Amino acid sequence: MSGWSHRHVLDLAAFSLDDYATVLELAQRFRALPTSGARKLPALQGRLVTTFFFEPSTRTRSSFELAAKRLSADVQSFSPSSSSLSKGESLLDTVRTYVAMGADLLVVRHRCTGVPAALARDLEASGARVAVLNGGDGLHSHPSQGLLDLFTLARHFAPERPGPEALRGRRIVIVGDVLHSRVARSNLWALTACGADVVLCGPSTLLPEAFAAFVAAPPPGQARDPVDRRGRVTVARSLEAALPGADAVMTLRLQKERMHQHLLTSLEAYHRRFGLTHQRLELCGRPVPVLHPGPVNRGVEMSGALLDDPEICLVDEQVTNGIPIRMALLYLLAAAGGPAG
Ligand code: NCD
Q1: What is this structure's pTM?
Q2: In the predicted model, what is the mean pLDDT of residues 93-121?
Q3: Which CATH superfamily is 12-141+319-336 part of?
Q4: Does ligand 1 have an atom closer than 6 angstroms to the CB of 60?
Q5: Which comes out higher in pLDDT, residue 267 or 161?
Q6: Domain ranges of the chain
Q7: CB burial class (10 A; 0-12, 13-18, 19+) of residue 311?
Q8: Would you tell me the crossing angle of helices 59-70 and 143-157 to the nearest 10 degrees?
Q9: Ligand 1 centre and the CA of 186: distance in Å?
Q10: Greatest alpha-carbon span in the chain
Q11: Which fold is adopted by the domain 145-318?
Q12: Range with the poorest average pLDDT among 92-96, 273-277, 322-326
């Protein structure tokens, strides 16, 4: 695949415009395949994909597993609660056990930032030829979600040719709990790389002003930004300021499990100020799509009526698009790792 150089997928900060184009093009081809009947492709025959989810997941894990099966891989899923981790085995030793069983591609979710990257590094150092896909780590990164959101928006703006250029010059509003959201961070890298301007919107307790400079420099440990010119990031403190002129709005879940201080007065008060409704969306000045990575707190981030409106709400479309995006990532990493042996 043209110019693809990644051995792992850990953080979208490392993605070039060509990387986004490659993933989206492949995902569009996989998206066009029939979903019933003879729907399996042989590309990953003989490969073993193992999912390690140390945090709950509904969508990401099952979507990766389905994507792997659609490419004819064998799939194994590790469950932390019934494993020897509870007997004191280290995470790396546990993962190595699965590598010794033949795992080629590992999908890792963990509540701590950096765990997938640390595993990738340690496994490389031990000589293991495996690829690590970050299924979400702490507050840091959720690359496959960022890519499926990008794909969903690109398909919305340019159904025939949903490449990165479909995002150029668009105004995308991300509203909600940005502070605790790895999805927002991955979206910031992806959207600005494709030339979209991002408006972040939320109360200062959930959206520190510093987020305006989030993509201004590559993260520590990465020498350079592979993207020459990114879209702009701005911060707005009200929907009235953020929504006029928007091309799409993405809402984020209030991550109550990660909120250790009292960051909100009440969910009702939050909904009154930042919750999306049909009426609020009129501020955009035209019909625009609404996205949410899920799981949704119905009636908090958006009204139940909006969530159930398929003309506006792309939540189901995002879930559907997650499968071809993850097929594309598994395919590219398997190809980069050489033939099955
Ligand atoms: C997100 C996650 O786990 O980061 N969900 C997802 O993967 N679809 C967002 C969330 O939990 O709110």
Answers
A1: 0.96
A2: 96
A3: Aspartate/ornithine carbamoyltransferase (3.40.50.1370)
A4: yes
A5: 161
A6: 12-141+319-336, 145-318
A7: exposed
A8: 80
A9: 12
A10: 58
A11: Rossmann fold (3.40.50)
A12: 92-96
